[in-house]
Amino acid sequence: MLLTKLASIQHILWEILDEYGIDPDPLFRRVELNPDLLFEPGARYPLTGVAALWLEMERLIEDPCFGLKTADHWHPSHFGTIGYAMLASSTVRKGLERLIRYHRVVSDARFGELVDDVDRGCLHVKLNWSEETPWPAAREDAALTYILSSCRLNFNKQLSPKRVEMTHDQHQCLERYEKFFKCRVDLNRPAPVLSLSLRDVDKPLRSGDEYLAQLHDRIMEDYISRLSEVRLIRSVQKVLAAQLPDGLVTVDAVAKELGMSTRKLQRDLKLEGTTYQELLNGTRKDLAQRYVKDSQNDLTEVAFILGFADLSTFSRSFKRWTGVSPSRYRKIGAEN
Predict the structure, then answer these.
(1) Residue closest to 324 by CA, chosen among 279, 289, 295, 294
(2) Which are the contacts of 121, defined by CB distance < 8 A and separation ≥ 6?
(3) Fewest CB within 10 angstroms: 22, 53, 128, 336, which?
(4) pLDDT tens by residue, 19-60
(5) Distance between CA atoms of residues 50 and 108, nearest Å
(6) 63 phi and psi, to 5 degrees?
(7) pLDDT, tens digit, for every residue of 78-97?
């Protein structure tokens, strides 16, 4: 399944690039992220494209600590309803609980967990991005920076964690880390962790409005429900998986199967951060790997089943997808 992320969040990266004198528009387009979607409410980008953007930023920006710039450019609106729900929460803890519980609004990938540590008097915000790799150091910095920035907006600007842990080894940034987080920062740790005082996270906030926060909760629950049940991407992938063995499937055929016009299908897929061709290529790749791995399947037949004109065309596409030829891929699978 194609994992996606709310497009509006990437406003932050756009502004960071601009601050460092790098034109964001061609860079976004180079990693196949349509800049127009930044302004489409609810539009989403493929997580693969977002990951590619981070890698490009790490390559182009000479400042290894640029992830900290998130604090200067983030805004609750970038995170949709979840940003405002956190602001209306009656305590920092409740805001963080909403971030974890409703993170699906922001991204399809898992994000993290909250762990109470009574002995140390801490609430640990432990991040987990096993579904998103690679994860550059700057992206880790940005995630921790955003979380603390949102807590400070609720609590006060002086809120200091008891401790911060990072998985990377950016020693050249250590002084800047400790200046921003206002606490000890440990590098080369097993997981990224932001540890906040239990006294701070459970202190009632004057800005809290649980009635308003719960209204946002219901909006997010409805959004997640619709995202899970009628997600267009999943419907298209299901049709492709069923019909590809009978030959190449056109966008017109898929639109007809889903009971919608071709134009509407293409427009709605764009809002979800992808295109019909991307889904077709992804589904063909998944099926190709599955069929090639089975030694009982003749490779020429596999090529025709997936809609390729001949074996050589299929082999070139397969090598582009996996880095090896179909026969080599099959041999590697047998050896493992």
Answers:
(1) 289
(2) 162, 197, 198, 199
(3) 336
(4) 999 999 999 999 989 999 998 888 888 888 899 999 999 999
(5) 13
(6) -80, 110
(7) 888 898 999 999 999 999 99
